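ARCHIVE CARD
SHELF: 3
SLOT: left
DATA:
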Amino acid sequence: MKSYRKELYFNLPTRRGFVNITPQVEQALAESGVREGLVLVNAMNITASVFINDDESGLHSDFEKWLERLAPEKPYSQYAHNGYEDNADAHLKRTVMGREVVVAITGGRLDFGTWEQIFYGEFDGKRTKRVLVKIIGE
């Protein structure tokens, strides 16, 4: 059994955004040499997310609007968490979008369904955050 670990780093210039990280995960898989197994991809920050969905700009816009209705950024005073920080909404958005994904590896490739891609979701940007890619298998 092989094990491989890689960290990806992101620093989005905006407070919120979505980045397709499938190519970086595929690169890590190639580096690992694993042909059959699993890959775990998880956000290592409490205000960021990793999720699987379609790479379609309209859908991403819908995510943004939906999340903002669920947990609006402002007014900051609506959240008990806000005081030293103003990111309570980012914590809530991350909870909805999820912390990690696990994808099967078959024949040295990510075993996706139709249109599936892996995304990094940022909800409190403008600083460097990391994503862990952990690959295990043979």
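SLOT: right
DATA:
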Amino acid sequence: MTQFTSDRLLLFGATGDLSRRMLLPSLCALDAEGLLGSHIEIIGTARSDMDDLGFRNFAREALEQFLPANRRGGIAQFLNRLSYQSLDANDMDGFHALAEKVGTPENGLSIFLSTAPSLFEATIHGLEKSGLAGPNVRIGLEKPLGIDLASSKVINDAVHHAFPEDRIYRIDHYLGKETVQNLLALRFANLMFEPLWNAAHIDHVQITVSETVGLESRVGYYDDSGALRDMVQNHMLQLLALVAMEPPVSYDATNVRDEKVKVLRSLRKVDVAETVTGQYRAGAIGGQAVPGYDDELGKESDTETFVAIKAHIDNWRWQGVPFYLRTGKRMPKRTTEIVVQFKDVPHSIFTGRGARTVPNRLVIGLQPEENITLSLMAKVPGLDRNGYGLRSVPLAITTPDAFAGPQRRIAYERLLLDLIEGDQTLFVRRDEVEAQWEWIDAIRAGWEEQQQTPKTYTSGSWGPSAAIALAERNGVTWHE
């Protein structure tokens, strides 16, 4: 694994929305805390025609809009690190001008590549021909990396032609979230959980990623993608892998990713009857009327904006434990959470005293709030003359309260810093990506074979009623 710390960072798509909202604010915040090397230079590139000063003004406006007010102290210092070179990815001469702008890094170059899938091959070819793909260069790849297994392989083959796997950093920004990383600490740094983390003690697992937004500015991309490709293929399967993986030998890139890919390869092919798709119609979110998907799109479409799946992992630890995955747009609230539902006690000694036990439940909230809540049974205070009282009570850890010192970070802060320093642990390996696509492609093939089209649901609801039935057939209620 390449362990140099880069002194150059090259940002493709530097004038795009991702750069404005996430990348530039993340880098500025890191710089203000002294986490970027004092000599690191940041070169932006995109099709937009501007000079260094124009890019710095662009960056200043983005930082003033998207960086929290209490983290803006180092903007002036950060802007001095920035320079810019315009580039048309189809113009090979432009890459030579870009290489001149980047110069010769003393320690190494890190590249953040965010581009349309159709431009991947041309971009990698240009980097290679201009000398920007040498042994001291690593590359971070932002999704989408294809629309299925075949197209993903084409992109990965193109990248691999110039970069070996140990210098490729495939980005899933969910892995940069503090609570996602804390999931590993929860499982493997606390003796109380791991002995119970299996089919003998866990009834089922739920993973929900719900959004209140509709298409916004992603009309073209989303209608070609849909919820299954946009959310399940990457973010949700990564969360599932972290929940279900075996304990790695150590916390490093090879061992962690080895265990994740074992889970992904153990996913059972999904029966179409264990999936539900939906598409939102006009309704209300937070008291505000919102249009339906077809209204926003301006035409009819069979693209799903909601999907629920009952998944199974065919291995020793998880045999018989269903994993319920659910994601959708125009839902009642924005949330990402993992629910681990434990089984009930095998025998309650309190039944004869009129008390009923409720199974323990662990809820790990990722957004908008980062928290962990474990429900436990406790005795209701009193003299018990009318029966023994039990009640489920929460033990809650809210991350900002438990750790008052550290700043709440943008996920890309961690990922960009790891890219610069050369730590692949929180990045996705090629065999993971391909295992994910193989499972997703089989689901889509089943939908096409069965001619399954999305059921409609009202904006502001939790999706089609069939999603409720999918869980309730096994006595499960979605956590809402």
